[in-house]
Design goal:
The protein has a single domain (2-176), classed as Cyclic phosphodiesterase (Cyclic Phosphodiesterase, Chain: A). It contains four helices and ten strands. It is globular and about 45 Å long. The strands form three sheets. A four-stranded antiparallel sheet has the order 3-1-9-10, covered by helices on one side. A four-stranded antiparallel sheet has the order 2-7-6-5, with helices on one face. It has a two-stranded antiparallel sheet with strand order 4-8. It is α+β, with helices and mostly antiparallel strands and 185 residues long.
Length: 185
């Protein structure tokens, strides 16, 4: 079995900005910059045979390159926060790419992702028992104007992850280039 997900990589310019956020919150396990990413579709544990089918299906997805930027902060877990993240500014091309991958995975027999897609970059894992929700809200409020300059998205990646608490390290198994489509008048 292999644990897979698809994601967008974070360029060095945005990664450097994310690193400036990584202090000032007790009980935070800060994510290593090399593990920053924007998940497109969590696939989960699959057999190697299904992994080959997933790779083949992903290689058929067509989309044009687009620009993204990160904006704002948030957390998952409400009264017991367990993750701190940087948001992704609204992007129709990103949502379309996510939808194409979701459809492709369902055609292979994988269950639909039950959660609403919230594109983000996890910057810290939080201990639910030891982290004060008020401290997390204070942290976010004082950094809520966080943003990056736009960066180009020219490919997506199929990553594998070992089964561990908090994820990582992640291994890029295959990359899929986004290509300009010829527009016929």
């Amino acid at each position: 079995m292999i644990r897979l997900f698809t994601a967008l990589e974070i360029p060095a310019s945005a990664s450097d900005r994310l690193c400036t956020l990584q202090s000032g919150l007790q009980n935070a396990r800060w994510i290593s910059p090399e593990n920053f990413h924007i998940t497109l579709r969590f696939i989960g544990d699959v057999s190697e045979d299904l992994a080959f089918e997933i790779d083949e299906s992903l290689s058929l997805i067509r989309a044009e390159p687009f620009d993204l930027h990160l904006s704002g902060l948030g957390s998952f877990g409400h009264s017991k926060p367990h993750a701190l993240w940087a948001g992704v500014a609204e992007s129709e091309p990103l949502r379309a790419l996510h939808a194409k991958q979701e459809t492709a995975m369902q055609k292979l027999g994988l269950k639909a992702e039950p959660r609403k897609y919230t594109p983000h970059v996890t910057i810290a894992r939080l201990n639910k028992r030891a982290t004060n929700a008020g401290d997390v809200m204070h942290y976010i409020e004082h950094r809520n104007l966080f943003s990056t300059l736009p960066f180009p998205v020219t490919r997506f990646v199929l990553f594998s992850a070992r089964n561990s608490k908090g994820g990582g390290p992640y291994v890029a198994e295959r990359t899929y280039d986004l290509e300009e489509q010829a527009h016929v008048a």
